[in-house]
Amino acid sequence: MDRFDLVIIGGGINGAGIAQCASAAGFSVLLLEKGEIAEQTSANSSKLIHGGLRYLESGQLSLVRKSLSERRALLKLAPNLVKPIPFYIPVYENSQRSQWAIRAGLSAYALLSELDPLGQFKSLPAVQWPNIKGLKLQGLEAVFQYWDAQTDDKALTKSVVRSAVELGAKVLQGAECDALVHRPDHCEVSYLYQDERCKVTASCVVNATGPWVNKLIGCVTPPMAKEEVELIQGSHLLLDIPSPDGILYLESCFDERVVFVMPWEGKTLLGTTETTLASLDEKPQPTREESYYLLGIYRHYFPESGDIETLEAKIYDTFCGVRVLPKQAGQAFERSRELWLQSRESHPRFLTLYGGKLTTFRSTAKEVTHWLHERLGERVEIADIDRLPLY
Hints:
Domain FAD dependent oxidoreductase: 5-360
Helix content: 10-25%
Shape: globular
GO molecular function, one term: glycerol-3-phosphate dehydrogenase (quinone) activity
CATH architecture of the largest domain: 3-Layer(bba) Sandwich
Organism: Shewanella woodyi (strain ATCC 51908 / MS32)
Cofactor: FAD
Largest sheet: 10 strands, mixed
Number of domains: 3
Order of helices and strands: EHEEHEHEEHEEEEHEEEEEEHHEEEH
């Protein structure tokens, strides 16, 4: 039976990042993905590498600082995959967030970016407002422009996996783990691969299965407790409308949420929503309510784009990502996006990842590798991921 220091289950961005980081640190790594690499949530995000300006409202300063640091690193390490893009925030006379509140938030954002040139922002003069083609000008009081970054999430994840393989990680697609036995000194991981049942021994196992995190825990022997979570669907609509020059950060006209209007593949991408899912028995699809929600916001800010039926006819494609959030009272929009790493005393060799963000996958990988060092000791480092370019 093959033995690895670490078996990672789940080939999304977090699993990919952990495979790269742990391999670079000198550990032997096996990554199992039941489908294709980056096929699920990591291919269905809002395509943003950003600090999370809106997280300032809920006081998540450490997450914003960490995200801005990771944005800076990815712009340097993956310039062909992660690119700066201007964001625009229009403020109207009836906006819930005043222009002074937006200015204060952007000032804090700039401060937390630690003198990064992308931390700069400005208020556009009124003469430039019509340059944002189609944007409603009636009642407009200010337009702020700041910077974040955009990426192809699937391509980025695959690039990180390639880097992990170059560092010695073994990666299997189409490998579904269906049983895991936790023993005092190791774990036995069973999986189906190419119609054969396979088994490997792992010193440690990481559960990076995203929305299926508790399903995998149900395969563990002896049984272990699961955390209560909610699966939150984030839907996106790709409209057959020429793409905007930058990204519009829009306050929803229906609630307190924020929605983005983004360029993507020459078209206009709208996202995202927050709808609780009861299960993942089928592939997530945007509901009619979600589509009308996004189209209604777009029409509110771009009134010349036509009525809802006209816009609905322009839907070129749709996709949904699924977030894992702690089950709490209140709206999903207000809950923390901080990663939650869980290792129980009863199963000290098994680590579960709850939540996490595309932007901070490298930070997550470093935390998990630190956990691995604590359990298995040091290894001879092969490479420094802070110096490894991603192509």
